[in-house]
Design a protein that fits this description.
Elements: E1 16-22, E2 26-35, E3 38-48, H1 56-67, H2 70-73, E4 77-82, E5 88-94, H3 99-116, E6 123-132, E7 140-148, H4 149-160, E8 168-171, H5 172-175, H6 185-188, E9 191-197, E10 202-208, E11 211-218, H7 222-229, E12 232-235, E13 238-241, H8 244-254, E14 265-266, E15 269-270, H9 271-299, E16 308-311, H10 320-328, E17 332-334, E18 341-343, H11 347-367, H12 379-432, H13 437-461, H14 466-477, E19 483-492, E20 502-503, E21 516-526, H15 532-545, E22 549-560, E23 565-574
Parallel strand pairs: 1-4, 3-18, 4-8, 9-16, 16-17
Antiparallel strand pairs: 1-2, 2-3, 5-7, 6-7, 9-10, 10-11, 12-13, 14-15, 19-21, 20-22, 21-23, 22-23
Helix pairs in contact: 7-8, 7-9, 9-10
Protein backbone atom coordinates (compact mmCIF):
# COMPACT_ATOMS: atom_id res chain seq x y z
CA UNK A 1 0.00 0.00 0.00
CA UNK A 2 1.38 3.43 -0.93
CA UNK A 3 2.42 5.63 1.96
CA UNK A 4 0.53 8.85 2.52
CA UNK A 5 2.59 12.06 2.60
CA UNK A 6 2.05 14.68 5.29
CA UNK A 7 -1.16 16.63 4.48
CA UNK A 8 -4.20 17.96 6.29
CA UNK A 9 -7.74 16.95 5.59
CA UNK A 10 -9.85 19.64 4.01
CA UNK A 11 -12.29 21.40 6.29
CA UNK A 12 -14.61 24.33 5.94
CA UNK A 13 -13.14 27.79 6.35
CA UNK A 14 -13.95 29.33 9.71
CA UNK A 15 -16.35 32.25 9.30
CA UNK A 16 -16.19 33.77 12.81
CA UNK A 17 -12.88 33.73 14.71
CA UNK A 18 -11.88 35.26 18.04
CA UNK A 19 -8.14 35.92 17.87
CA UNK A 20 -6.29 36.44 21.17
CA UNK A 21 -2.72 37.74 21.56
CA UNK A 22 -1.17 36.83 24.93
CA UNK A 23 1.98 38.52 26.14
CA UNK A 24 3.66 39.13 29.47
CA UNK A 25 2.11 42.60 29.79
CA UNK A 26 -1.26 42.46 28.04
CA UNK A 27 -4.02 40.45 26.43
CA UNK A 28 -5.43 41.73 23.15
CA UNK A 29 -8.43 40.27 21.35
CA UNK A 30 -10.26 40.71 18.05
CA UNK A 31 -13.51 39.14 16.85
CA UNK A 32 -13.37 38.85 13.07
CA UNK A 33 -16.12 37.71 10.69
CA UNK A 34 -15.38 36.67 7.12
CA UNK A 35 -17.76 37.98 4.50
CA UNK A 36 -17.72 37.67 0.73
CA UNK A 37 -14.91 39.92 -0.41
CA UNK A 38 -14.34 41.60 2.98
CA UNK A 39 -13.46 41.17 6.64
CA UNK A 40 -15.64 42.62 9.42
CA UNK A 41 -14.20 43.50 12.85
CA UNK A 42 -17.06 43.04 15.34
CA UNK A 43 -15.07 43.64 18.55
CA UNK A 44 -11.52 44.32 19.65
CA UNK A 45 -9.70 45.53 22.73
CA UNK A 46 -6.75 45.31 25.08
CA UNK A 47 -6.27 44.54 28.77
CA UNK A 48 -2.97 45.59 30.33
CA UNK A 49 -1.46 43.42 33.06
CA UNK A 50 0.98 44.99 35.49
CA UNK A 51 3.59 43.20 37.60
CA UNK A 52 1.77 44.30 40.77
CA UNK A 53 -1.59 43.10 39.59
CA UNK A 54 -1.03 40.05 37.40
CA UNK A 55 -4.40 38.34 37.23
CA UNK A 56 -4.86 37.14 33.66
CA UNK A 57 -7.70 34.80 34.66
CA UNK A 58 -9.74 37.79 35.85
CA UNK A 59 -9.15 39.57 32.52
CA UNK A 60 -10.22 36.45 30.64
CA UNK A 61 -13.41 36.21 32.70
CA UNK A 62 -14.16 39.90 32.04
CA UNK A 63 -13.77 39.50 28.27
CA UNK A 64 -15.87 36.35 28.04
CA UNK A 65 -18.61 37.45 30.46
CA UNK A 66 -19.11 41.19 29.93
CA UNK A 67 -17.18 42.48 26.89
CA UNK A 68 -18.17 39.91 24.27
CA UNK A 69 -21.65 38.35 24.65
CA UNK A 70 -21.62 34.60 25.33
CA UNK A 71 -24.10 34.05 22.51
CA UNK A 72 -21.52 35.52 20.11
CA UNK A 73 -18.21 34.00 21.21
CA UNK A 74 -19.84 30.58 21.64
CA UNK A 75 -20.34 30.57 17.86
CA UNK A 76 -16.74 31.64 17.17
CA UNK A 77 -13.59 29.60 16.80
CA UNK A 78 -11.12 30.73 19.47
CA UNK A 79 -7.46 31.03 18.42
CA UNK A 80 -4.83 31.93 21.03
CA UNK A 81 -1.39 33.15 19.96
CA UNK A 82 1.49 33.40 22.43
CA UNK A 83 5.26 33.68 22.63
CA UNK A 84 7.73 31.45 24.44
CA UNK A 85 11.48 31.49 24.86
CA UNK A 86 11.43 27.69 24.51
CA UNK A 87 9.69 27.71 21.14
CA UNK A 88 11.65 25.74 18.53
CA UNK A 89 11.09 26.86 14.93
CA UNK A 90 13.25 25.53 12.12
CA UNK A 91 13.21 23.91 8.68
CA UNK A 92 13.76 20.18 8.24
CA UNK A 93 13.87 17.94 5.20
CA UNK A 94 12.07 14.57 5.03
CA UNK A 95 11.77 11.86 2.41
CA UNK A 96 8.32 10.68 1.46
CA UNK A 97 6.80 8.94 4.47
CA UNK A 98 3.53 8.53 6.35
CA UNK A 99 2.29 11.62 8.16
CA UNK A 100 2.16 9.85 11.53
CA UNK A 101 5.74 8.59 11.18
CA UNK A 102 7.00 12.05 10.24
CA UNK A 103 5.33 13.74 13.19
CA UNK A 104 6.58 11.05 15.55
CA UNK A 105 10.14 11.62 14.31
CA UNK A 106 9.82 15.36 14.94
CA UNK A 107 8.39 14.80 18.44
CA UNK A 108 11.23 12.46 19.34
CA UNK A 109 13.84 14.94 18.13
CA UNK A 110 12.31 17.86 20.02
CA UNK A 111 11.78 15.76 23.16
CA UNK A 112 15.46 14.81 23.15
CA UNK A 113 16.45 18.46 22.70
CA UNK A 114 14.26 19.67 25.58
CA UNK A 115 15.40 16.79 27.79
CA UNK A 116 19.05 17.78 27.20
CA UNK A 117 18.13 21.34 28.25
CA UNK A 118 16.52 20.03 31.45
CA UNK A 119 12.98 20.85 30.36
CA UNK A 120 9.84 18.75 30.20
CA UNK A 121 10.29 16.07 27.53
CA UNK A 122 6.55 15.92 26.73
CA UNK A 123 6.29 17.89 23.47
CA UNK A 124 3.53 19.25 21.25
CA UNK A 125 4.60 20.04 17.69
CA UNK A 126 3.31 20.52 14.17
CA UNK A 127 4.62 20.85 10.63
CA UNK A 128 3.94 23.10 7.65
CA UNK A 129 4.86 21.88 4.19
CA UNK A 130 7.25 24.38 2.56
CA UNK A 131 7.93 22.76 -0.81
CA UNK A 132 10.56 20.54 -2.47
CA UNK A 133 14.07 20.46 -1.03
CA UNK A 134 16.34 21.67 -3.83
CA UNK A 135 19.45 20.40 -2.04
CA UNK A 136 18.12 16.85 -1.58
CA UNK A 137 16.12 15.63 -4.61
CA UNK A 138 13.07 13.60 -3.60
CA UNK A 139 12.81 15.23 -0.17
CA UNK A 140 10.30 17.84 0.99
CA UNK A 141 11.05 20.74 3.30
CA UNK A 142 8.80 21.42 6.30
CA UNK A 143 8.67 24.23 8.81
CA UNK A 144 8.77 22.45 12.17
CA UNK A 145 7.67 24.19 15.36
CA UNK A 146 7.01 22.90 18.85
CA UNK A 147 7.44 23.50 22.58
CA UNK A 148 7.00 21.65 25.89
CA UNK A 149 3.42 20.69 26.60
CA UNK A 150 3.66 22.11 30.12
CA UNK A 151 4.40 25.58 28.72
CA UNK A 152 1.25 25.44 26.59
CA UNK A 153 -0.92 24.33 29.51
CA UNK A 154 0.50 27.22 31.54
CA UNK A 155 -0.46 29.71 28.81
CA UNK A 156 -3.97 28.27 28.49
CA UNK A 157 -4.69 27.75 32.21
CA UNK A 158 -6.45 31.16 32.69
CA UNK A 159 -8.88 30.08 29.96
CA UNK A 160 -9.40 26.44 30.85
CA UNK A 161 -10.13 27.26 34.51
CA UNK A 162 -13.21 29.13 33.21
CA UNK A 163 -14.11 26.15 30.96
CA UNK A 164 -13.07 28.06 27.82
CA UNK A 165 -11.27 25.63 25.52
CA UNK A 166 -9.69 27.27 22.47
CA UNK A 167 -9.95 25.57 19.11
CA UNK A 168 -6.38 26.44 18.28
CA UNK A 169 -3.21 27.46 20.11
CA UNK A 170 0.00 28.37 18.35
CA UNK A 171 2.99 30.73 18.50
CA UNK A 172 2.12 34.26 17.39
CA UNK A 173 5.07 34.32 14.95
CA UNK A 174 3.48 31.46 12.99
CA UNK A 175 0.30 33.51 12.50
CA UNK A 176 2.30 36.40 11.00
CA UNK A 177 2.25 34.63 7.63
CA UNK A 178 -1.46 35.54 7.48
CA UNK A 179 -0.44 39.21 7.20
CA UNK A 180 1.71 38.74 4.09
CA UNK A 181 -1.38 38.88 1.86
CA UNK A 182 -1.76 42.57 2.72
CA UNK A 183 1.83 43.50 1.78
CA UNK A 184 2.82 44.84 -1.67
CA UNK A 185 3.37 42.05 -4.18
CA UNK A 186 7.10 42.71 -4.48
CA UNK A 187 7.45 42.27 -0.71
CA UNK A 188 5.59 38.94 -0.71
CA UNK A 189 8.10 37.46 -3.17
CA UNK A 190 11.47 36.30 -1.93
CA UNK A 191 12.54 37.36 1.56
CA UNK A 192 10.73 39.80 3.84
CA UNK A 193 10.74 40.41 7.60
CA UNK A 194 8.24 41.56 10.24
CA UNK A 195 9.28 43.17 13.53
CA UNK A 196 6.74 42.93 16.36
CA UNK A 197 7.66 45.75 18.77
CA UNK A 198 6.14 44.81 22.12
CA UNK A 199 6.33 46.61 25.43
CA UNK A 200 9.25 44.66 26.98
CA UNK A 201 10.84 43.06 23.92
CA UNK A 202 10.51 42.63 20.17
CA UNK A 203 10.41 39.62 17.86
CA UNK A 204 11.97 39.65 14.39
CA UNK A 205 10.47 37.09 11.99
CA UNK A 206 11.90 36.26 8.54
CA UNK A 207 9.82 34.85 5.69
CA UNK A 208 10.87 32.94 2.60
CA UNK A 209 8.39 32.59 -0.28
CA UNK A 210 5.43 33.38 1.98
CA UNK A 211 6.48 30.90 4.71
CA UNK A 212 7.93 31.64 8.15
CA UNK A 213 11.65 30.78 8.03
CA UNK A 214 13.43 32.11 11.10
CA UNK A 215 12.72 34.15 14.23
CA UNK A 216 14.81 35.95 16.79
CA UNK A 217 13.91 37.73 20.02
CA UNK A 218 15.35 41.23 20.61
CA UNK A 219 15.50 42.57 24.16
CA UNK A 220 14.31 46.05 23.16
CA UNK A 221 10.69 47.18 23.42
CA UNK A 222 8.51 50.26 23.49
CA UNK A 223 8.92 50.71 27.23
CA UNK A 224 12.67 51.18 26.75
CA UNK A 225 11.98 54.37 24.80
CA UNK A 226 9.72 55.61 27.59
CA UNK A 227 12.25 54.81 30.34
CA UNK A 228 15.06 56.55 28.43
CA UNK A 229 13.16 59.84 28.55
CA UNK A 230 12.75 59.73 32.34
CA UNK A 231 16.42 60.59 32.86
CA UNK A 232 17.64 64.01 34.00
CA UNK A 233 18.36 66.80 31.49
CA UNK A 234 20.43 69.86 32.43
CA UNK A 235 19.36 72.89 30.45
CA UNK A 236 20.17 76.55 31.11
CA UNK A 237 21.37 75.88 34.62
CA UNK A 238 18.45 73.77 35.81
CA UNK A 239 17.75 70.06 35.98
CA UNK A 240 14.65 68.73 34.18
CA UNK A 241 13.32 65.25 34.82
CA UNK A 242 10.12 63.81 33.33
CA UNK A 243 7.75 61.45 35.11
CA UNK A 244 6.64 58.21 33.44
CA UNK A 245 3.38 59.82 32.35
CA UNK A 246 5.20 62.85 30.91
CA UNK A 247 7.65 60.55 29.11
CA UNK A 248 4.73 58.60 27.59
CA UNK A 249 3.13 61.90 26.54
CA UNK A 250 6.38 63.01 24.90
CA UNK A 251 6.79 59.70 23.07
CA UNK A 252 3.22 59.81 21.76
CA UNK A 253 3.47 63.44 20.65
CA UNK A 254 6.98 63.61 19.15
CA UNK A 255 8.22 60.02 18.82
CA UNK A 256 11.95 59.99 18.05
CA UNK A 257 12.53 63.69 17.36
CA UNK A 258 16.19 63.84 16.28
CA UNK A 259 16.37 65.37 12.83
CA UNK A 260 12.63 66.08 12.75
CA UNK A 261 11.89 68.69 15.47
CA UNK A 262 14.89 71.06 15.73
CA UNK A 263 14.29 74.21 17.78
CA UNK A 264 11.21 72.85 19.60
CA UNK A 265 10.88 72.28 23.35
CA UNK A 266 8.79 70.09 25.64
CA UNK A 267 8.11 71.33 29.18
CA UNK A 268 11.17 73.54 28.96
CA UNK A 269 13.52 70.88 27.55
CA UNK A 270 14.80 71.07 23.92
CA UNK A 271 13.58 68.16 21.85
CA UNK A 272 17.11 67.57 20.57
CA UNK A 273 18.34 66.86 24.10
CA UNK A 274 15.36 64.61 24.86
CA UNK A 275 15.93 62.80 21.59
CA UNK A 276 19.61 62.37 22.49
CA UNK A 277 18.47 60.38 25.52
CA UNK A 278 16.53 58.06 23.19
CA UNK A 279 19.44 57.59 20.74
CA UNK A 280 21.08 54.66 22.61
CA UNK A 281 17.82 52.71 22.50
CA UNK A 282 17.43 53.35 18.77
CA UNK A 283 21.04 52.36 18.09
CA UNK A 284 20.70 49.21 20.19
CA UNK A 285 17.52 48.23 18.31
CA UNK A 286 19.11 48.99 14.93
CA UNK A 287 22.23 47.03 15.86
CA UNK A 288 20.27 43.93 16.93
CA UNK A 289 18.22 43.98 13.73
CA UNK A 290 21.36 44.44 11.61
CA UNK A 291 23.11 41.50 13.28
CA UNK A 292 20.02 39.36 12.68
CA UNK A 293 19.98 40.34 9.00
CA UNK A 294 23.64 39.40 8.64
CA UNK A 295 23.15 36.08 10.45
CA UNK A 296 20.14 35.23 8.29
CA UNK A 297 22.02 36.06 5.11
CA UNK A 298 24.98 33.87 6.10
CA UNK A 299 22.75 30.89 6.92
CA UNK A 300 20.52 31.06 3.82
CA UNK A 301 23.18 31.21 1.14
CA UNK A 302 23.27 34.99 0.78
CA UNK A 303 19.55 35.71 0.87
CA UNK A 304 18.87 39.45 1.08
CA UNK A 305 15.88 40.74 3.04
CA UNK A 306 14.17 43.19 0.71
CA UNK A 307 11.84 44.96 3.18
CA UNK A 308 10.99 45.21 6.88
CA UNK A 309 7.48 45.85 8.26
CA UNK A 310 6.75 46.99 11.80
CA UNK A 311 3.76 46.17 13.99
CA UNK A 312 2.93 46.22 17.70
CA UNK A 313 2.47 49.12 20.10
CA UNK A 314 6.11 50.25 19.68
CA UNK A 315 5.62 50.60 15.92
CA UNK A 316 3.40 53.63 16.58
CA UNK A 317 6.50 55.65 17.58
CA UNK A 318 6.79 58.55 15.14
CA UNK A 319 9.83 58.63 12.81
CA UNK A 320 11.00 55.15 13.86
CA UNK A 321 10.54 53.79 10.32
CA UNK A 322 12.67 56.58 8.79
CA UNK A 323 15.45 56.10 11.34
CA UNK A 324 15.55 52.29 10.99
CA UNK A 325 15.44 52.53 7.20
CA UNK A 326 18.43 54.88 7.23
CA UNK A 327 20.39 52.72 9.70
CA UNK A 328 19.63 49.38 7.99
CA UNK A 329 19.70 50.57 4.35
CA UNK A 330 16.49 48.70 3.52
CA UNK A 331 12.88 49.93 3.15
CA UNK A 332 11.10 50.00 6.53
CA UNK A 333 7.35 50.59 6.79
CA UNK A 334 4.55 49.97 9.25
CA UNK A 335 2.15 47.10 8.48
CA UNK A 336 -0.45 48.49 6.03
CA UNK A 337 -4.13 48.48 7.00
CA UNK A 338 -6.10 46.01 4.82
CA UNK A 339 -8.33 47.79 2.30
CA UNK A 340 -11.16 45.26 2.53
CA UNK A 341 -11.63 45.51 6.29
CA UNK A 342 -14.79 46.93 7.85
CA UNK A 343 -15.36 47.94 11.47
CA UNK A 344 -18.71 47.60 13.24
CA UNK A 345 -20.08 50.88 14.56
CA UNK A 346 -19.73 54.50 13.52
CA UNK A 347 -17.10 56.39 11.53
CA UNK A 348 -15.47 57.33 14.85
CA UNK A 349 -15.21 53.63 15.73
CA UNK A 350 -13.37 52.96 12.47
CA UNK A 351 -11.07 55.93 13.08
CA UNK A 352 -10.18 54.57 16.54
CA UNK A 353 -9.52 51.14 15.02
CA UNK A 354 -7.16 52.65 12.43
CA UNK A 355 -5.25 54.40 15.23
CA UNK A 356 -4.84 51.14 17.18
CA UNK A 357 -4.40 48.74 14.24
CA UNK A 358 -0.63 48.30 14.71
CA UNK A 359 -1.17 47.50 18.39
CA UNK A 360 -3.92 44.99 17.51
CA UNK A 361 -2.12 43.50 14.47
CA UNK A 362 -1.04 40.31 16.27
CA UNK A 363 -4.58 39.52 17.47
CA UNK A 364 -5.72 40.34 13.90
CA UNK A 365 -3.25 37.79 12.48
CA UNK A 366 -4.57 35.17 14.95
CA UNK A 367 -8.17 35.95 13.93
CA UNK A 368 -7.19 35.36 10.27
CA UNK A 369 -6.63 31.64 10.96
CA UNK A 370 -9.04 29.68 8.77
CA UNK A 371 -8.74 26.01 9.80
CA UNK A 372 -7.36 23.77 12.54
CA UNK A 373 -4.02 23.37 10.73
CA UNK A 374 -0.83 24.53 12.47
CA UNK A 375 -2.12 23.67 15.92
CA UNK A 376 -0.22 23.20 19.19
CA UNK A 377 -3.36 22.59 21.26
CA UNK A 378 -2.56 19.57 23.49
CA UNK A 379 -4.34 16.34 22.44
CA UNK A 380 -6.33 16.18 25.70
CA UNK A 381 -7.91 19.56 24.88
CA UNK A 382 -8.46 18.67 21.23
CA UNK A 383 -10.54 15.71 22.41
CA UNK A 384 -12.97 18.15 24.03
CA UNK A 385 -13.86 19.62 20.64
CA UNK A 386 -13.90 16.17 19.04
CA UNK A 387 -16.38 14.95 21.66
CA UNK A 388 -18.50 18.07 21.06
CA UNK A 389 -18.48 17.34 17.34
CA UNK A 390 -19.50 13.74 18.01
CA UNK A 391 -22.39 14.95 20.18
CA UNK A 392 -23.55 17.25 17.39
CA UNK A 393 -23.36 14.40 14.88
CA UNK A 394 -25.37 12.18 17.23
CA UNK A 395 -27.95 14.95 17.64
CA UNK A 396 -28.20 15.32 13.86
CA UNK A 397 -28.49 11.53 13.56
CA UNK A 398 -31.30 11.51 16.15
CA UNK A 399 -33.12 14.18 14.16
CA UNK A 400 -32.66 12.12 11.02
CA UNK A 401 -34.09 9.04 12.76
CA UNK A 402 -37.12 11.07 13.90
CA UNK A 403 -37.61 12.30 10.35
CA UNK A 404 -37.41 8.74 9.00
CA UNK A 405 -39.89 7.53 11.62
CA UNK A 406 -42.22 10.38 10.66
CA UNK A 407 -42.03 9.41 7.00
CA UNK A 408 -42.59 5.74 7.82
CA UNK A 409 -45.53 6.58 10.11
CA UNK A 410 -47.02 8.84 7.47
CA UNK A 411 -46.64 6.08 4.89
CA UNK A 412 -48.35 3.56 7.20
CA UNK A 413 -51.15 6.06 7.84
CA UNK A 414 -51.65 6.51 4.11
CA UNK A 415 -51.80 2.75 3.66
CA UNK A 416 -54.36 2.48 6.48
CA UNK A 417 -56.49 5.14 4.80
CA UNK A 418 -56.36 3.20 1.52
CA UNK A 419 -57.36 -0.01 3.32
CA UNK A 420 -60.27 1.79 5.03
CA UNK A 421 -61.51 2.96 1.65
CA UNK A 422 -61.30 -0.60 0.32
CA UNK A 423 -63.24 -1.89 3.32
CA UNK A 424 -65.92 0.78 2.83
CA UNK A 425 -66.26 -0.23 -0.81
CA UNK A 426 -66.60 -3.89 0.18
CA UNK A 427 -69.25 -3.02 2.79
CA UNK A 428 -71.19 -1.05 0.17
CA UNK A 429 -71.17 -4.06 -2.13
CA UNK A 430 -72.30 -6.28 0.77
CA UNK A 431 -75.22 -3.94 1.57
CA UNK A 432 -76.46 -4.09 -2.01
CA UNK A 433 -76.08 -7.84 -2.32
CA UNK A 434 -79.38 -9.89 -2.44
CA UNK A 435 -78.45 -11.88 0.66
CA UNK A 436 -78.24 -8.71 2.73
CA UNK A 437 -81.23 -6.87 1.28
CA UNK A 438 -83.52 -7.24 4.30
CA UNK A 439 -80.80 -6.05 6.67
CA UNK A 440 -80.10 -3.03 4.48
CA UNK A 441 -83.87 -2.13 4.38
CA UNK A 442 -84.04 -2.27 8.15
CA UNK A 443 -81.00 0.00 8.48
CA UNK A 444 -82.53 2.49 6.04
CA UNK A 445 -85.74 2.59 8.07
CA UNK A 446 -83.73 3.20 11.23
CA UNK A 447 -81.82 5.98 9.52
CA UNK A 448 -85.03 7.76 8.46
CA UNK A 449 -86.37 7.53 12.01
CA UNK A 450 -83.23 9.13 13.39
CA UNK A 451 -83.32 11.87 10.78
CA UNK A 452 -86.93 12.69 11.69
CA UNK A 453 -86.03 12.86 15.39
CA UNK A 454 -83.09 15.16 14.62
CA UNK A 455 -85.37 17.49 12.64
CA UNK A 456 -87.79 17.72 15.58
CA UNK A 457 -84.98 18.56 17.99
CA UNK A 458 -83.61 21.17 15.62
CA UNK A 459 -87.05 22.80 15.35
CA UNK A 460 -87.34 22.99 19.12
CA UNK A 461 -83.86 24.47 19.39
CA UNK A 462 -84.70 27.14 16.85
CA UNK A 463 -87.61 28.47 18.93
CA UNK A 464 -86.96 32.13 19.67
CA UNK A 465 -86.71 32.27 23.49
CA UNK A 466 -85.70 35.44 25.33
CA UNK A 467 -82.13 34.19 25.90
CA UNK A 468 -81.77 33.32 22.24
CA UNK A 469 -83.07 36.76 21.24
CA UNK A 470 -80.56 38.43 23.56
CA UNK A 471 -77.69 36.45 22.03
CA UNK A 472 -78.93 37.37 18.56
CA UNK A 473 -79.03 41.02 19.61
CA UNK A 474 -75.43 40.91 20.84
CA UNK A 475 -74.28 39.11 17.71
CA UNK A 476 -75.90 41.77 15.51
CA UNK A 477 -74.84 44.86 17.46
CA UNK A 478 -71.23 44.02 18.50
CA UNK A 479 -68.89 46.21 16.37
CA UNK A 480 -66.37 44.42 14.16
CA UNK A 481 -63.56 46.19 16.04
CA UNK A 482 -64.47 44.38 19.27
CA UNK A 483 -64.09 40.67 19.90
CA UNK A 484 -66.02 38.86 22.64
CA UNK A 485 -64.12 36.09 24.36
CA UNK A 486 -66.78 35.02 26.92
CA UNK A 487 -70.53 35.33 27.74
CA UNK A 488 -71.92 34.30 31.12
CA UNK A 489 -75.45 34.50 32.64
CA UNK A 490 -75.59 34.82 36.43
CA UNK A 491 -77.44 36.25 39.45
CA UNK A 492 -76.44 39.22 41.62
CA UNK A 493 -78.04 40.37 44.90
CA UNK A 494 -76.85 43.98 44.67
CA UNK A 495 -75.54 46.33 42.08
CA UNK A 496 -71.74 46.14 41.55
CA UNK A 497 -69.40 49.03 42.18
CA UNK A 498 -68.37 50.23 38.70
CA UNK A 499 -64.85 51.28 37.79
CA UNK A 500 -65.48 52.43 34.24
CA UNK A 501 -68.12 54.38 32.31
CA UNK A 502 -71.75 53.87 33.40
CA UNK A 503 -74.60 54.39 31.05
CA UNK A 504 -78.32 53.59 31.34
CA UNK A 505 -81.68 55.01 30.52
CA UNK A 506 -82.70 54.57 34.15
CA UNK A 507 -80.15 55.64 36.75
CA UNK A 508 -81.44 53.89 39.84
CA UNK A 509 -80.64 55.32 43.22
CA UNK A 510 -81.64 52.31 45.29
CA UNK A 511 -80.22 48.82 45.40
CA UNK A 512 -82.43 46.00 44.15
CA UNK A 513 -83.83 43.92 46.95
CA UNK A 514 -84.28 40.78 44.81
CA UNK A 515 -81.49 39.04 42.87
CA UNK A 516 -81.22 40.16 39.26
CA UNK A 517 -80.16 38.27 36.18
CA UNK A 518 -76.91 39.68 34.75
CA UNK A 519 -75.13 38.92 31.48
CA UNK A 520 -71.33 39.41 31.83
CA UNK A 521 -69.43 39.93 28.58
CA UNK A 522 -65.63 39.99 28.30
CA UNK A 523 -63.83 41.23 25.20
CA UNK A 524 -60.36 41.84 23.83
CA UNK A 525 -58.70 43.38 20.81
CA UNK A 526 -55.09 43.08 19.58
CA UNK A 527 -53.51 46.25 18.09
CA UNK A 528 -56.59 48.41 18.81
CA UNK A 529 -57.27 51.66 16.94
CA UNK A 530 -56.99 54.94 18.82
CA UNK A 531 -60.79 55.34 19.00
CA UNK A 532 -61.53 51.84 20.29
CA UNK A 533 -63.40 53.35 23.27
CA UNK A 534 -65.91 54.97 20.89
CA UNK A 535 -66.88 51.56 19.50
CA UNK A 536 -67.40 50.19 23.00
CA UNK A 537 -69.61 53.17 23.86
CA UNK A 538 -71.74 52.59 20.75
CA UNK A 539 -72.13 48.95 21.69
CA UNK A 540 -73.33 49.90 25.20
CA UNK A 541 -75.83 52.42 23.75
CA UNK A 542 -77.26 49.78 21.38
CA UNK A 543 -77.78 47.38 24.27
CA UNK A 544 -79.54 50.04 26.33
CA UNK A 545 -81.85 50.96 23.47
CA UNK A 546 -82.84 47.32 22.88
CA UNK A 547 -85.25 47.23 25.88
CA UNK A 548 -83.89 43.89 27.12
CA UNK A 549 -81.80 45.44 29.87
CA UNK A 550 -82.50 47.76 32.80
CA UNK A 551 -78.89 48.84 33.04
CA UNK A 552 -75.59 48.32 31.13
CA UNK A 553 -72.32 48.95 33.00
CA UNK A 554 -68.71 49.03 31.73
CA UNK A 555 -66.92 47.42 34.70
CA UNK A 556 -63.40 47.38 33.29
CA UNK A 557 -61.51 48.62 30.29
CA UNK A 558 -57.72 48.79 29.96
CA UNK A 559 -54.99 49.24 27.39
CA UNK A 560 -52.07 46.85 27.91
CA UNK A 561 -48.86 48.39 26.58
CA UNK A 562 -46.71 45.26 26.93
CA UNK A 563 -48.62 43.40 24.21
CA UNK A 564 -50.46 46.34 22.58
CA UNK A 565 -53.96 45.09 23.37
CA UNK A 566 -57.28 46.39 24.72
CA UNK A 567 -59.51 44.47 27.16
CA UNK A 568 -62.93 45.23 28.63
CA UNK A 569 -65.72 43.72 30.76
CA UNK A 570 -69.40 44.78 30.51
CA UNK A 571 -72.32 43.76 32.77
CA UNK A 572 -75.89 43.96 31.35
CA UNK A 573 -78.77 43.58 33.86
CA UNK A 574 -81.84 41.92 32.35
CA UNK A 575 -85.13 43.83 32.50
CA UNK A 576 -87.38 42.60 35.34
Amino acid sequence: MAQKSFAYQKEQTWQLVLGIDLSATSMKYMLLRRRIGSLAVEAYGKFSISDQEYDLAAKVQEVFSTVIPRSLWKKAKIVIGFDSSRLVLRRESFPKMAAADMKQAVEMGLAQQFENEGADSSVVCDLIQAGPDTDTPGNTQYVVFGMPESDIFTRLQPFTQHHIIPHKALPSVVTFSNLLQFLPEESRQGHAAILDMGADSSVLVFFRDGMVDFKREIAVGGDDFTKSVTGTIFHEGRAIQFSSDEAAEFKQRYGYPLGFSDGMTFRGAPLTEVGAMMRPVVERLSGEIHRSLVFYKENTGGAEVTSLFLLGGGARLKHVTEVLSENLSIPVETMPLPENIRVAGTAQDRERFVQHFLEQAVSFSAALEETSEKNLLPPSLQKVHKNTAIQKIMAYAACAVVAVLFLVTNGVKNKNTALEKQISAIEARVRTSPSRGDEFARLQKRQKSLEKRYAELAEKTAQDTSAVRVLKLISNTIPSNLKLISLEFGKEDTKPQTSGRRRGAAQKQEEQSAPRTVLTMKGWRKNPPNDIGVFLAKFVVELEKSGYFDEVVVNEEAYLKEDNSYAFRVSAYMAQ
